[in-house]
Structure formats: C-alpha cells, structure tokens
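Lecture 7, part B: from sequences to assemblies.

Below are the input chains for today's worked example.
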Amino acid sequence: MQIDPTPLPGVVVLTPARHGDDRGFFSESWNRRTLREAGLDLPDIVQDNHSMSMRAGTLRGLHYPAPPHAQGKLVRCGRGSPFDVAVDARRGSPTYGQWFGTELSFADGRQLWIPAGFLHGFVTRAPETEVIYKCTAHYDRAADGAVAWDSLGIDWGVRDPVLSEKDRAAPAFADGTSPFASDA
Ligand SMILES: Cc1cn([C@H]2C[C@H](O)[C@@H](COP(=O)(O)OP(=O)(O)O[C@H]3O[C@@H](C)C(=O)[C@@H](O)[C@H]3O)O2)c(=O)[nH]c1=O
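Predicted structure of the full complex, as structure tokens:
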C-alpha cells in the first residue's frame, strides 16, 4: 500500500498493491491493519456506496453531510477515470476553501481518502463510470448539504456538466458559513 500526501493535510492518495497474473489481478482494496502499519489510522467504516454515471461529463457535488453526520470517505473507481475533488471546509483551517483534485482510474486503482469536514465531488470523463466509496458515518437525508460546483474556481475540465436538480440549485461556497468547525 502506497500512501502519498496531498497539498491538503489529511487528504491522502492510497495505491493498494496489485498481484497480477495471466487471469488479471488481485488487490486488497482496503485493509485496516495494512493502513495502520503504514501510519494511517482511519475512523471505522460503516457504509459502502456505489454510484454509476451513464454519461461523460456527469458531475456529482460538491457534497457534505453536516455534523453530527459528517463522513470521512475513501473513494475509488470501479470503471472509468473520474476526476475526484476534495475541498477543505473546516473553518479556521489553514487550507480552508482550498481544493485538491486527482484522477482515480480503474486502471491504476488509486484511492482518495477525504476526512470529515471536506466537501466532495467528482466529474466523469467517460460513459458508464463507477465510483465506490466507503464512509465513516451513516447517510442522513436531513444532513445532506451541497455547494455549487462552480463556486470555488475548481478546474473540472467541463463547461456544461450533467447535474442533479439538487446540485443545480446548490448555493455558492460562502466564507464563514461552513457547518464544520476546525476540528471536524
Ligand atoms: C448519498 C446517499 C444517497 N441516497 C439516496 C438519496 C437519493 O434518493 C439518491 C441519490 O442521492 P444523491 O443525488 O445525493 O446522490 P449523489 O449525487 O451521487 O450524492 C453523492 O455524491 C458524492 C459526490 C458524495 O460524496 C456522496 O456522499 C453523495 O453526496 O440516493 C441514499 O439512500 N444513501 C446515501 O448514502
């Protein structure tokens, strides 16, 4: 398991080992002990999500479940190569409002760990893109929050994305209004 830091402290890129042979490959996509031994002690995982986006240019985000339902998310790609983005929304954080984005392809198995207190979103680059992510808290519909995808200067590489109604109506990211304290 390779663990690479990003410019946002707490957000890391994980690359699990793959054991290839003439059938294909085998990979432990998540292993608590391996991560702990590598110095990454993640909170308990309680939910695993799987989404399929049929069209290239589909953008889901930017989302956050508000406290006390905030979720850390370990995101990977089942098919395709989405561009995955985390935004630091912890008030008082030195990197508040800053974003980090990276491509998570099925081809290389890279994963993005996004702690609670961050917004999350992704855009698909190919049809039939599958994104799979483990969460550290259960989904609560009433806590579901969204911020406008185009309000943070993120270079998504798409001008007119396919959006849900919720994401089309999401408010802009506004200074000081984040529900997350600095220690979210
Ligand atoms: C997120 C979620 C949604 N749902 C339901 C609510 C709704 O009827 C349907 C679709 O929900 P959404 O439109 O919110 O799905 P989606 O736009 O894919 O939302 C997801 O986007 C990515 C970027 C995230 O980080 C996730 O946490 C989540 O917010 O699924 C659940 O039952 N459980 C869940 O955990």
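Note for the exam: The chain has one domain: 2-168. Keep this in mind when comparing with the next example.
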